[in-house]
């Protein structure tokens, strides 16, 4: 765990979502001068044991999938794929950057843009994550081709 504590799968999941938001915001800021857009996306809860949950215990996946459908919070594989395709190629998002897209309301197959949490908007944390990520994969924090000179 980043905070040095014992591994906690629930915290790890939440930390991964926060890191996705922090990294997206920093990438959006860094790449905007180059005309590159970066957004974060979550397809919602897709518990299909033959899809995203295929590597889970099949009994758990089947029961959990049934519960999420009955409660009305499940999304479908088709919705998740369609929403991702929309994010990737729809012209209405050509100049949109720094957004977080998720389902709202859950289970209704609708994509909405949300404001990130206060922690996800912390520019200091965004920069620290970017630097740590670059170091972990052995890259400079700003590759020469992405170093944009300041505008006069």
TrEMBL record:
InterPro entries: NAD(P)-bd_dom_sf, Prochl_reduct. The keyword Oxidoreductase applies. GO terms for molecular function: protochlorophyllide reductase activity. The keyword Zinc-finger does not apply. Gene3D superfamilies: NAD(P)-binding Rossmann-like Domain. Keywords: NADP, Oxidoreductase. PANTHER family: PROTOCHLOROPHYLLIDE REDUCTASE A, CHLOROPLASTIC (PTHR44419:SF19), PROTOCHLOROPHYLLIDE REDUCTASE C, CHLOROPLASTIC (PTHR44419). This is Light-dependent protochlorophyllide oxido-reductase. It comes from Chrysochromulina tobinii.
């Amino acid at each position: 765990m980043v905070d040095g504590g014992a591994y906690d799968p629930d915290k790890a999941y939440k930390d991964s979502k926060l890191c996705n938001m922090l990294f997206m915001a920093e990438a959006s800021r860094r790449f905007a001068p180059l005309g590159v857009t970066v957004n974060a996306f979550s397809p919602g809860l897709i518990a299909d044991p033959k899809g995203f949950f295929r590597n889970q215990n099949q009994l758990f996946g089947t029961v959990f999938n049934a519960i999420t459908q009955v409660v009305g919070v499940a999304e479908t594989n088709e919705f998740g794929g369609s929403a991702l395709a929309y994010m990737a190629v729809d012209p209405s998002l050509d100049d949109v950057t720094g957004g977080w897209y998720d389902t709202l309301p859950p289970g209704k197959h609708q994509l909405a843009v949300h404001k990130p949490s206060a922690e996800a908007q912390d520019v200091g944390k965004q920069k620290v994550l970017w630097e740590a990520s670059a170091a972990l994969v052995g890259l400079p924090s700003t590759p020469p081709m992405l170093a944009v000179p300041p505008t006069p």
